[in-house]
What we know:
One of its GO terms (molecular function) is nucleotide binding. InterPro entries: Gfo/Idh/MocA-like_OxRdtase_N (IPR000683), Gfo/Idh/MocA_Oxidoreductase (IPR052515), GFO_IDH_MocA-like_dom (IPR055170), NAD(P)-bd_dom_sf (IPR036291). Residues 7-119 form the Gfo/Idh/MocA-like oxidoreductase N-terminal domain. By secondary structure, the chain is α/β, with parallel strands linked by helices. 35% of the residues lie in helices and 23% in strands. It has a 9-stranded mixed beta sheet. Strands 3-2-1-4-5-6 form a 6-stranded parallel beta sheet, with helices on both faces. The longest helix is centred in the last third of the chain and has 17 residues, at 340-356. The mean pLDDT is 96.
Amino acid sequence: MTDKKVRLGIxxxxxxxxxxxxxxxxxxxxxxxxxxxxxxxxxxKARADELGVPFYEDYVEMIESGNVDAIVTCVPHYLHPEMGxxxxxxxxxxxxxxxxxxxxxxxxxVIDYAATKPELTFxxxxxxxxxxxxxxxxxxIASGELGALxxxxxxxxxxxxxxxxxxxxxxxxTWGGEGGGVLxxxxxxxxxxWQWLCGVPQSCFAKLAFGFRRDIAVEDEVNAIVDxxxxxxxxxxTATHDLVGTDRLEILFDKxxxxxxxxxxxxxxxLKDAEQELSKGMSMEDVRKMFMGQADTSELYTTEVKEYTSxxxxxxxxxxxxxxxxxxxxTPLIAPGPDGINGVRLANAMHLxxxxxxxxxxxxxxxxxxxxxxxxxxxxxxxxxxxx
Length: 388
């Protein structure tokens, strides 16, 4: 360890950037200090003055100033890759907010460039990877104790957003300004965690509703089926129009099952043997007793329930602290930048499947076809330039 601190340049002092500045200023990230703040809104300079740090309107000028060792991007999604590349070009480390890009071709550009600068740190802000619940769950799955994956489903519909949320700015919930709806704005953390836990899917088929219950062009409801390979499947459902909302993750294995409710309560069922072996050894009388509630289930499985609590802001502070530790002493990254393309690809595949009505190959994902379809929708909006 070292007493040295990483001077972080915050690009975009909105809700996220403001929170990060507050966490650092309050000493919640011991190995980071604010090097400078950049925002296109000049009124944000007042906050920079309060913190006693330089203020810039141009992020390139900030990167080239010598006042920052690293940057974090708290700006609209399309800008993440180009800002990351600009930083890396000047030998400045880059921590990109999720998603790492809107489409895989764009995400790959910053990932490929970062690979040419292996001495620099390139991370993505997946703060949920620091959540003890998911850290413990990943370790359990990796141990092999529960056997092979069979199926997983995640219903994550507690992203309710009123129409006023979408009406706040012209770029929000547009193809050209934001690049999508719930998949690129609210659900990227779950898309990342799902693959972090279960593996990267090989294909996807999806039905999406665009402007289903909101006056927007992009998706506000998603139903997708994925193929994880080796017979394992999964489904993912998310929406922004469910006022009550549900957050329930289920993962079924050969030797057990995990259920996560509201990202707080984890129920782990461990079978005494693989399910198929238990099936072979059961008589129909055994089955009758089980269905009638007369069987001693302790002979079949055990159940453990674990409760987790969350401290607001702690996960974000942990990501920044880990990122800085990698810069300072090579501590392994919790969320390496290249991991960011997995969630982008899955979101892109869901879009493309819904647009074409086809199952989408994710192993050999057609980036150009996706970009062509995306640009057709950007052009139809007539508000923003198409992408390359």
